Amino acid sequence: MPKSISPSSTQKPRIGLCGSVWTAAQVNVLVNDVIDLDTSRVANEAAWTAWTPTFTGTWANGNATTTGKYQKIGKRVFFYGSITIGTTTTKSGTMEITLPATALVSSFLAPHSTVKLQQSGVGLFHGSMRITSTVKMEINAIAANGSYLGPEASASATIPFTWAATDVVFVAGVYEAA
What are residue 35's phi and psi, to 5 degrees? Predict the structure, then answer.
């Protein structure tokens, strides 16, 4: 419990916003309210839960290394994860990854997301994700040199580069849960 400010004969009133004068009792209420709000926020904040990002569709993890976590607060799902391609990872067609929790809608761009596609020993490419069903996301590569038909293209076995062991896809974002 925070300490209270006790008015004394030597204490001067506090000057608040816009020149208003605050008494010690008002300052105590403000301090206690801020502490209560912070305590309540922390108490209601959900713990991070382990999540295993998994390729779906025509890709398969094989011996890929995966890591991820997600946190659900109300209907918001915050997540981050990565998949490091292994020697037995199947790479064919559009790259899709499972979501950590069921999404409310089955088709939308996730504006509050980031995707990085790392070609081992070469560099990092930017991407985006699109929720394509209530349980998976499609990974897209953003064109850096105009080589795609539009500003981005579905990541595949050869887009934005030919995927090989030790290449990594990183995903992070927020979406609304069902």
Answer: -65, -40
Q: What is the pLDDT of residues 18-36, one digit of tens each?
A: 445 556 666 666 555 555 5
CB 168 within 8 A of CB 72: no
Domain 49-176 has CATH 2.60.90: yes
**Type of residue at 55:** F
Of 30-34, 72-76, 155-159, the one with minimum mean pLDDT is 30-34
Q: What is the secondary structure of 60-109 as a DSSP string?
A: B-TT-EEEEEEEEETTEEEEEEEEE--TT-B--SS-EEE-SS-BSSSSEE
- Does the pTM of the predicted model rise above 0.90? no
Torsion angles phi and psi, residue 167, rounded to 5: -75, 155
